[in-house]
Amino acid sequence: MSIVDRFIASTLPFVPKPIVKRIASRYIAGETDDEALHVASELNGRGFRATVDLLGEHIRTLDEAQPALHQYIGLLESIAQRKIDSTVSLKLTQFGLKMDKDACLAMVDSIVNRGAALNNFVRIDMEDSSCTSDTIETFRRLREKHSNVGLAIQAYLRRTAEDVAAMEHLKPNIRLCKGVYVESPEIAFREMNAINRSYVSILERLLRNGSYVGIATHDEAIVREAKRIIRELQLPVTAYEFQMLLGVNDALRNRLVAEGHRLRVYIPFGREWYAYSVRRLRENPRIAGYVLKAMLSAKL
Ligand code: FDA
């Protein structure tokens, strides 16, 4: 992590909110369902699929989960009414994973259930390592009942290869990402080559197993390796998709779609955008470098 990254990350809380909003607006679709679905629909028009993520995590009481529960159900209904090609992504801590696993499971179950009735799909994001086991366990229990639920896993965790092996019989629908939280070297690879090696090996294992994989990355080297594996396994374009975050590397996104691959854009939105932006930057100051680039190119 460079001194510049560290400096930006530590000073961000003192940057005026309107400026943070201006920078974040490239990565966050707005505050309301309408704004997020407008972005999703606009992306659909350009050949991309979407997944919308209502920002918010780590609630303090289970009651605080209720608004998010209703909002996710409303989102699924609006997506269906407006015929938008978008799934939803959610974080389990937003539904009280850390307080009451059964209550969390019941709430997410009702979202997945509504998604099934509307022919839609729910992806569970993966949070920091204190949540990994409980998130996988919740996914397993949901997957036993529903086929329209998938899980995100992180290639930087040393445990992930084993987690994947233990889930193989479920043929899980997996989003594979590198991992965004700062974790200790005891549990996570820290060096980029090691993370990339783990990513490619897990990707190949999942695809060979017949899992549908959301290849979530903006790293051109990983994209090249993914295409090699897809070619070698002679997979049809329906067996996988690429996934990228809103506002990141539009050129790569356009190229992949022009080549005939499916690509889903992850669209975060919600009133929690400020806390989310600041926390993410503090958690992973490397992202601060991206923000600096955005600041330099933004017309503030
Ligand atoms: P890498 O970090 O090497 O970045 C490659 C290049 O992409 C960089 O050089 C930079 O130019 C650009 N880039 C990457 N991220 C950027 C950003 N935020 N802003 C601007 N430029 C950026 N993580 C997690 O722990 N749990 C999860 O559930 C998810 N979910 C998720 C969904 C989707 C659709 C994506 C694409 C990513 C996630 N992630 C995630 C985040 C993921 O773990 C990872 O931190 C980022 O995608 C960055 O990793 P890359 O594979 O892009 O490589």
Describe the model.
It is a single chain. 49% of the residues lie in helices and 14% in strands. The protein is globular. The longest helix has 17 residues, at 65-81. The protein has 12 helices and 8 strands. An 8-stranded parallel beta barrel has the order 1-2-3-4-5-6-7-8, surrounded by 6 helices. Helix 1 (3-11) crosses helix 12 (286-297), helix 4 (65-81) runs parallel beside helix 5 and helix 8 runs parallel beside helix 9. The chain has 300 residues and is α/β, with parallel strands linked by helices. The site of dihydroflavine-adenine dinucleotide has 23 residues, from strand 4, strand 5, strand 7 and helix 12.
Strand content: 5-15%
Bound molecules: dihydroflavine-adenine dinucleotide
Average of per-residue pLDDT values: 91
Number-wise, the strands total 8
Distance separating the two termini: 26 Å
| Number of helical segments with 4 or more residues | 12
Pick out the low-confidence regions. Answer: none
Please describe the topology of this protein:
Elements: H1 3-11, H2 17-24, H3 33-45, E1 49-54, H4 65-81, E2 86-90, H5 101-117, E3 122-124, H6 132-145, E4 149-154, H7 160-167, E5 174-177, H8 192-208, E6 213-216, H9 220-232, E7 240-245, H10 250-258, E8 263-269, H11 273-283, H12 286-297
Parallel strand pairs: 1-2, 1-8, 2-3, 3-4, 4-5, 5-6, 6-7, 7-8
The chain binds dihydroflavine-adenine dinucleotide.
Dihydroflavine-adenine dinucleotide (FDA) binds next to strand 4, strand 5, strand 7 and helix 12.
